[in-house]
Amino acid sequence: MQAKKRYFILLSAGSCLVLLFYFGGLQFRASRSHSRRDERSSRDGLHPPGPDRFWPRFPDALRPFFPWEQSESEDSGVHMSPRQKRDANSSIYKGKKCRMESCFDFTLCKKNGFKVYVYPQQKGEKIAESYQNILAAIEGSRFYTSDPSQACLFVLSLDTLDRDQLSPQYVHNLRSKVQSLHLWNNGRNHLIFNLYSGTWPDYTEDVGFDIGQAMLAKASISTENFRPNFDVSIPLFSKDHPRTGGERGFLKFNTIPPLRKYMLVFKGKRYLTGIGSDTRNALYHVHNGEDVLLLTTCKHGKDWQKHKDSRCDRDNAEYEKYDYREMLHNATFCLVPRGRRLGSFRFLEALQAACVPVMLSNGWELPFSEVINWNQAAVIGDERLLLQIPSTIRSIHQDKILALRQQTQFLWEAYFSSVEKIVLTTLEIIQDRIFKHISRNSLIWNKHPGGLFVLPQYSSYLGDFPYYYANLGLKPPSKFTAVIHAVTPLVSQSQPVLKLLVAAAKSQYCAQIIVLWNCDKPLPAKHRWPATTVPVIVIEGESKVMSSRFLPYDNIVTDAVLSLDEDTVLSTTEVDFAFTVWQSFPERIVGYPARSHFWDNSKERWGYTSKWTNDYSMVLTGAAIYHKYYHYLYTHYLPATLKNMVDQLANCEDILMNFLVSAVTKLPPIKVTQKKQYKETMMGQTSRASRWADPDHFAQRQSCMNTFASWFGYMPLIHSQMRLDPVLFKDQVSILRKKYRDIERL
After folding, report:
1. Other CB atoms closer than 10 Å to residue 328's CB: what's the count?
2. Can you list the domains of the chain with their CATH numbers?
3. Residue (of 413, 347, 399, 349) closest to 378 by Cα position
4. pLDDT of residue 691
5. What is the pTM of this model?
């Protein structure tokens, strides 16, 4: 009996081995024949060499990166439920595994860098104002190119913002319109902006057409559908959101203590049924009518009275008692619950008001979460733990509350206050993915001045920027480079430019002097320049335009730049003192001649004044010290239109530099001690005397102020009443006890 069992087991095992070898052999032969066909095809030229051949071949498991075959969907649709069919045709589920490495062609970005092309607007296509603002922001940026052959990224001119079929902004037949674009290429290297998707009753995240391998810059996107390091989560913003500039945050000062009248507030719609109704229907459990005001109303929609419940009338009455703006400005925390969709307008409103957002929207991928650390600016709650929210926020220490509120203001002004900033942040995030070796780190994105003003192309080392010395434990630079802008020929050894060169060279902090020769006459002979203890480099300007004084010359080896006009009259002591002040404020402009701006109500425009008053907002670069990074920003960040205007007028370059630095730092420049004869002395010189006295010169500067303010979208200049003098300056003590004694003699 035992022998029979052994024979049976051996027979079964043998049969299994035979079957295994048989089917395995078939598969092996099939794969070998397939590889041979591929080899023959490549030898016969059926697959010509190109960029794709250098990219890795992905296994079959990654086939979902590409759209499903039509035959496959038809065959599988026979036994599908209606919901499954809808999901199968939904673009949000196709390419769900897309990542930059698999669905983005990096070769397009290697030749010309990160350039963005916007499709020409098609005739008869309607575009909502919000989408027009997005396209205008791209076209006005330094990334824009009108040549598709130079583009790394493509953006549709077809309006994709509102994909709710019940919306009047909904664009019909978008599927066929997109597929007909000759550059579409299944969405590869394309970016699609979207604020609203899906419609009543389920509000899915389907945008209504096949996005292929395109990236989504989408509001209210869930973590389930968000493709990390491929999509970009953007905030939901209203149609009234400003295109450029935007209002500043409401936290004007460091309010201490940070607590306000109300601890937690919310005012908004309450949905009686459907998606998003659970959380808002439960808010009344937390509302106490004192320091926690969570007000809802069901008075919205056409037939709200048909569906109202027993609480509606009472809620509506209390809802009308409070002004939303007053609540917002007087609350420490603002509840941001989900609505029909995951995102809410309340999010940006809370950020601007310095009201710490308390997020109550499970599964929402927060805006720009790839780079922003939201734990520094918001409280992330859980819809299932609503009743614990009040006790949680009451346990937060006041120091932490103040830090949270300050961070809301930084994030609002850096990334969210305008459509332009939202768009540029989106593009900068994508650029960082493409050029990872120079991408910004978390510190840059989450600390002033933010990622939009810190260009990694300048340097990958934080110590090369003027904003991170304290973070890195570094001391500010100990030397400066003097850059003298010369525009008149050298005809006499007594000219102010030579005296200025000697005075700067005698400074103990001077490393070198660069003379930028923008004069039409030939360069003077080498022996015409005075002998100095520091190197003197003369650079002949090629274009000889005003903006050339702010080019990022490789010859500037120090971080600090002392910018000088040729007719400036400064002593060595004044130079030394200004530099020591700058070392304490390396991110600002520090200097001598000050000017101011004002709003002219009669003309409804900005005005420029050189009168000696009790405040100022500009320090002219004719005698000022600043970080050389601003040369790079001036050259690569500002648009060509503004720089061309400066060059055509041969004027206003100093005003534009002040606009730029104040926009970056959100701080005024610093004026240091100045002799009273400084202005008269300059007016007495020959080269610029006619310019300063010319009324057209002054009128041009008035015009420049308004043109610059228009481009920035707001007035970045900030008034200051602070002037820094040496200790013991003008004090009734012996002159021998004073360090900068020569300043008082001038």
Report:
1. 20
2. 86-233 (no CATH), 262-417 (3.40.50.2000), 480-676+690-712 (3.90.550.10)
3. 347
4. 57
5. 0.83
